[in-house]
């Protein structure tokens, strides 16, 4: 197999942060020897999450077995997932903001037509529904656990307790038409084709504010593994949490 050197568009700060996690884990369980150092393991994990490199590619590039690659990645993801902020922790930051933007996205997965719970009628593909909260400048604050793609955005937001948390904190929230009926804290555009002029102006202003949330979606999809996830759906939430932890560590 041919091996080509590549680059990862992340700072050395992210690599150092990730290197400390496996190193601490090794001290905790008393590991004496590994094929890769903690720094090399961190580099392997970043290549997988950021660049989407497969286990086979990583095994060839790092000179280890595929099973070893799987163990290294799973170990690092589990350690990072614990470090990701919960909704309650994120609300401490959200309370200091003038408002937040709520939006849902679909993380594509490789599933067959029979897996109907994961099929999104809105996006016409299989995936996992993730709810994202961003600040007024489009910076990613928090991402929810993943639910099957057939879950409606409003249902997902209520399931994760986002609506209640925003109401309790008295924080204003901008969202799209999918969140119609969410309640007082969530502001949505008017629906309908023949709207009065002031309603059309309101929708235009609302769209200009809400579109900033797309920057957070682009930040999330910048981790190429999330563009097409091929692992078990049971692991997607941990992978997403690991990405969020690394994102906050690098900002």
Characteristics of this structure?
single chain; 251 residues; alpha/beta; 2 domains; 7-stranded mixed sheet; 10 helices; 7 strands; elongated
Give structural notes.
This protein is of the alpha/beta class and 251 residues long. The chain has 2 domains: 12-83; 87-231, no CATH class. It contains 10 helices and 7 strands. The chain has helices spanning 12-29, 38-51, 55-62, 66-83, 87-94, 153-159, 162-169, 197-210, 213-221, 236-250, and strands at 99-108, 119-120, 125-134, 140-143, 147-148, 172-174, 186-187. Strands 1, 2, 3, 4, 5, 6 and 7 form a 7-stranded mixed sheet that branches. Helix 1 (12-29) packs across helix 4 (66-83), helix 1 (12-29) crosses helix 10 and helix 2 crosses helix 4 (66-83). The radius of gyration is 20 Å and the shape is elongated. The model has no long low-confidence stretch (mean pLDDT 90).
Helices and strands in order, then pairings?
Elements: H1 12-29, H2 38-51, H3 55-62, H4 66-83, H5 87-94, E1 99-108, E2 119-120, E3 125-134, E4 140-143, E5 147-148, H6 153-159, H7 162-169, E6 172-174, E7 186-187, H8 197-210, H9 213-221, H10 236-250
Helix pairs in contact: 1-2, 1-4, 1-10, 2-4, 3-4, 4-10
Concise synopsis of the structure shown:
The chain has about 250 residues and is an alpha/beta fold. It is built from ten helices and seven strands. Helix 1 packs across helix 2 (about 40-50), helix 2 (about 40-50) packs across helix 4 and helix 3 packs across helix 4.
Report the β-strand fraction as a percent range: 5-15%
Compute the number of structural domains. 2
What is the radius of gyration? 20 Å
Report the end-to-end length measured between terminal Cα atoms. Answer: 36 Å
Order of helices and strands: HHHHHEEEEEHHEEHHH
Largest sheet: 7 strands, mixed
């Amino acid at each position: 197999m041919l091996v080509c050197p590549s680059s990862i568009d992340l700072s050395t700060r992210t690599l150092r942060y990730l290197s400390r996690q496996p190193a601490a884990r090794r001290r905790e369980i008393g590991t004496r020897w590994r094929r890769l150092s903690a720094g090399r393991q961190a580099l392997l994990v970043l290549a997988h999450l950021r660049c989407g490199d497969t286990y086979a590619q990583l095994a060839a590039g790092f000179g280890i077995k595929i099973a070893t690659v799987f163990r290294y990645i799973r170990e690092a993801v589990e350690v990072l997932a614990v470090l990701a902020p919960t909704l309650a922790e994120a609300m401490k930051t959200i309370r200091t903001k003038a408002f937040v933007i709520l939006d849902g996205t679909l993380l594509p997965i490789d599933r067959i037509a029979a897996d109907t719970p994961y099929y999104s009628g809105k996006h016409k593909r299989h995936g996992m529904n993730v709810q994202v909260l961003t600040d007024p400048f489009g910076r990613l604050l928090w991402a929810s656990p993943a639910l099957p793609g057939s879950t409606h955005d409003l249902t997902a937001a209520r399931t994760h307790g986002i609506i209640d948390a925003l109401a309790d904190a008295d924080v204003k929230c901008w969202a799209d038409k999918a969140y119609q009926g969410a309640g007082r804290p969530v502001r949505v555009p008017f629906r309908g084709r023949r709207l009065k002029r002031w309603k059309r102006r309101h929708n235009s202003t609302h769209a200009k504010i809400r579109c900033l949330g797309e920057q957070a979606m682009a930040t999330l999809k910048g981790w190429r593994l999330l563009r097409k996830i091929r692992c078990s759906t049971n692991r997607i939430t941990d992978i997403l949490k690991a990405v969020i932890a690394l994102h906050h560590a690098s900002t």
